[in-house]
Amino acid sequence: QHASGLITTAIGLLLICLLLLLPASRNANQLMLLSVFWGIAIMVIGLGMQVKVLALASDATDVAMSLFSGIFNIGIGAGALVGSQVSTQLSMSAIGYVGAVPALVALVWAVMIFRRWPTPLDEQQAHHS
């Protein structure tokens, strides 16, 4: 339950960071502060999702974490590919706004999923025991 709220909040924070990327780029201190919040958001998303994966697949944690790691790395690669294309086809100033689109989709999806399946983690672990 707490992981769901943290993940959703962190995705929202990441979305805000992406939207503020261009305005913050005019000032090094603002960009550094934005980078701190961006890093916090990514860390909370990663850790929160790991907690969810481990709770849902407590009987096969090694396989579940391998799949999670692979999917996470596909996301990193896809983001790098899209960022490269945006910087060459559009401009560097558009990267934050283009990146905000999948972040918004992820935020809406997370809210829908966590409302649809609000099972607390301790109940999920009890089902697997």
Number of helices: 5
Helix content: over 70%
Classification by helices and strands: mainly alpha
Please write the string of helix (H) and strand (E) elements.
Answer: HHHHH
Mean pLDDT: 88
Globally, the shape reads: globular
Q: Please give the alpha-carbon distance between the first and last residues.
A: 19 Å
Which residues form runs of ≥5 with pLDDT under 50? none
What's the number of extended β-strand segments? 0
Number of domains: 1
Strand portion: under 5%
The largest β sheet comes out as: none
- Gyration radius, rounded: 17 Å
Write a brief caption for the model.
Helix content is 86%, strand content 0%. It has helices at residues 2-24, 28-56, 61-89, 95-116, 121-128.
What would you note in describing this structure?
This protein is mostly helical and 129 residues long. It has one domain. It has helices spanning 2-24, 28-56, 61-89, 95-116, 121-128. The model has no long low-confidence stretch (mean pLDDT 88).
Topology (SSEs and partners):
Elements: H1 2-24, H2 28-56, H3 61-89, H4 95-116, H5 121-128
Helix pairs in contact: 1-2, 1-4, 2-3, 2-5
Keywords:
129 residues; mainly alpha; globular
